Amino acid sequence: MAITTREQTPDTQAAEDRRTNVGIVDCDTHNYWQSIDELKPYLAKNWFELIETVGLRHFAGGEYPRFWGDPDDRVPPSARRPGSDPGFMATDHLDAKGIAYAMLIPLTAVTGMPDLAFAGALARAINDWQADIWLDADPRLRASIIVPTEDPVAAAAEVRRAGRDSRFVQVQFGGRPQEPMGRRRYWPIYEACAEVGIPVMSHAFGSTGNPITGTGWPSYYIEDHVDPPQAMQANVISMVFEGVFEQFPNLDFLSVVAGSGWEKPLMWRMDNAWRALPQEVPHLKRQPSEYMSEHVYYATQPVEEPPERDFFAHLFDQYPAFKDHLLFSSDYPHWDGDDPARALPGLHDADLRDRVLHQNGRRLYGLS
After folding, report:
1. Which residues of the chain have pLDDT under 70?
2. Which of 87, 100, 162, 218 is most buried (CB neighbours < 10 A)?
3. Assigned domain for 9 exists
């Protein structure tokens, strides 16, 4: 119903250009429904009846956001949840922070649902809901395609369907899928992403039944809050060594809400291992660090904040590709979200700030 090939008239294109030719690109803005009833027009009757009688069932640890409550000033007056009103988001975030484009990331935990048929129907409904309720409301908004990642054939079909609308700019994975993201079961999704010409994005948290750390279940939320880099590094290692970027040379990967200061030490370890055991991965034609430098992108939030704030700039000295692969992320409307004015501690280089806040996101997403 909602996904169509988007066409611009000269007048609407000119109006959009005036609003977006300057400003920040935010790769991580969260949108929610006020009530699950908003999805009713987009779901077959049997699926909505299932929601009403059974609810949205997830694996243990799969339902998120498992976050602390968001601040009261992020709650629109007409809504019960922060991030659930497009008009309020426009004034409270886009206008107030000078955001030219915001990438919507609904935290719906579709990837944590054991009923794959239901997950596929729900993903399609969420995408149609995003197009109607959010993308049509403001030309600065772009969206992530929600897919049932554990049903790759259905997920790839949804990428191709939703991807007909150019306002959908990336495909969304949860941070902890059932298997490492390089496994071939997920390759149909990557093939569809490469075909449509959009990156794949992994947002931290969530679960598909596995423990959410490398050694089991943690005791406290604070552990879960610090742990996402574990899963993200495992996914990057898997994608590189399994040969995803060799098989799909035009595919890019974006890590969101998993930090970014770990990339260079990980490259050193991977390169050393590859030099010692190249016969195990003959499909790799280059060093692992070269694939990472070319294909892997990172979001600023949560940004590393060393005790000496100027030390943050040293990351760019250690890893030159970082200059073109770090994107601003607000994580709006969460309690620990970042204001773009304070998101880059100790980074005084005007060119680098411009790249992170403006240019890198425009290039990755093909924005004007």
Report:
1. 1-22, 58-80, 109
2. 162
3. no
